UniProtKB/TrEMBL annotation:
This is ABC-2 type transport system ATP-binding protein. One of its GO terms (molecular function) is ATP binding. It is a peripheral membrane protein. Gene3D superfamilies: P-loop containing nucleotide triphosphate hydrolases. NCBIfam families: drrA. It comes from the Bacteria. GO terms for biological process: daunorubicin transport; doxorubicin transport. Its main location: membrane. It comes from Gracilibacillus ureilyticus.
Amino acid sequence: MLETESLRKVFKKQVAVDDVNLYLKQGESVGLLGPNGAGKSTFISMIATLTKPSSGMVTWNGQDVIKNPNIIRPTLGVVPQEIALYKELSAYENVKFFGRIYRLKGKELESRVQEVLELVGLKDRQKELVKNYSGGMQRRINIAVALLHDPEIIIMDEPTVGIDPQSRHYILEMVKRLNEEKAMTVLYTSHYMEEVERLCDRIYIMDHGKVIATGTKEELTSILSSEETIQLELDQPSKPFEEALKEQSDVLKVTEWEKGIKLIVAKNTRRLAGIFQLAEHHQVSINSVDIQVPTLEDVFLHLTGRRLRD
Ligand SMILES: Nc1ncnc2c1ncn2[C@@H]1O[C@H](COP(=O)(O)OP(=O)(O)OP(=O)(O)O)[C@@H](O)[C@H]1O
């Protein structure tokens, strides 16, 4: 397990990371969500042993990483925000160059290079110069480089910022596959709520250097409410159906709206099948169902008074 305890970084008077406690268990996919300037890159850089903390601890399976960076370096693959590639070389030459830095040689080097190019979906275009690649493809090569030494943990610093939607989709799917199929542990930073929602088992929300909330998506959104709204669009109004819904124990409130009925139900107790059965019994057709649950964006707004992407 990778763990930080009261990890702090102060640049002159600027507190970039303010006593952050975070853990990453083997095989987990953890998101670090926060707006620009929240301190995500500085935090990652300390875990990756590239920046020295002002105070606090980083441990890997109980061992002190700050004193002994070498105990974690072979385990970590770090994808920085900036593209760090030689633009005049081909993708293949770039990855091979970095492979040599990882001290890979001969057949092993060649097979790892082909493996990672395959993982990022660029094996077929490996001979092209990186300068002719799109931003998204360059980002994928950056990721390939981080995977070369077959790390246990991959740490990604906003890997989808400023790239085309197709590459973004590819990267998200790839991270999911690495986590689910290769059991790779993932720490994924982003200011896109939908990305961490899609990829991560647990999420840390960071703002002004501090972790302001942590939990699974469900736990975080339950900060906001223990209820959710179900909006039913009906083919016709039906008082008997409305009355029957009111009698359901987990239905807290029933109101009409222009196209049907709105229910407030206790969270996680909704039984859509039951609602459909009731509708059928009262000969009402449900044209559409809209379940409105609070999002992480709403949680961030609630906690800070600001939007994530202000
Ligand atoms: N080397 C540095 N010297 C001085 N201040 C710094 C340095 N690096 C980061 N900071 C400051 O620390 C704070 C956190 O920055 P950091 O880059 O870690 O945030 P971030 O959440 O990763 O945001 P972004 O996505 O914009 O990179 C910011 O106020 C930034 O200006």
